[in-house]
Amino acid sequence: MDALVMSRLERPTIKIAGAAVLASLSVIMQCLPPMFLTPWWMRIDLVAVPWVLCWILFGFKAALLSLLISAPFVGALGPFAGGWVGATMKSVASVWMFAVPAILTYKLRMKDLTGNRRLYTLSGVVAIAVRDVVCVLFNLYFAIPVFFGMMPEQVIRFFSNPKFQSFVGHSLGLVGFGAYFAEVAFWNTIQGIVDLYASLAISLIVLRQVFPPTK
Fold first, then answer.
1. How is residue 39 annotated by DSSP?
2. What is the pLDDT of residue 122?
3. Are 108 and 58 in contact (CB under 8 A)?
4. In this structure, what CATH number is given to the domain that contains residue 12?
5. First CA to last CA across the chain, in angstroms?
6. Number of structural domains found in the chain
7. Alpha helices in 60-175 (DSSP H)
8. What predicted TM-score, i.e. pTM, was given to this entire model?
């Protein structure tokens, strides 16, 4: 983004309005059917795309505000919403998709990371790795135990059952913790890629339409 575009998007009122609009869009995405639903009921969807898009356009604080505004509705509305557990898990999983790139942007003293595709990809790889580790731990010790009333040992046995494995577990023939880890890490990686690159593509389209290149 050029300096003129950046200066316009950095206005506080624009940031707050952008965060609110994109929070509403996130709730709309939650109300739509998921792109894919795993046998253990994890959604692959576009709910977090507006949050990452908000970071690209308006910065980290605006993205965090957008997440906080919409998270309660994400947990309450739409198919497979999941209540407060679902809202917590969606937030805990998705926040890294813009927090890690934002930290890298700050550390490198850059105003915009999206112009450098290699750094954007690097930040995405780190963000997804953090997301996978966090989700493996949170699903094992918080989300699934609370939502289904299971102990962690029962969660591991649950994922050893072929009925609750996607093609990932089936193709690898995994059981026990290996099956659990592979399922959770794989699908969170897919969701992370969707979040990062769908938001990047949308941001490029929006910026070209709203702020066309000057001749």
1. T
2. 95
3. no
4. 1.10.1760.20
5. 15
6. 1
7. 60-76, 83-94, 96-107, 117-138, 144-148, 152-160, 167-172
8. 0.91
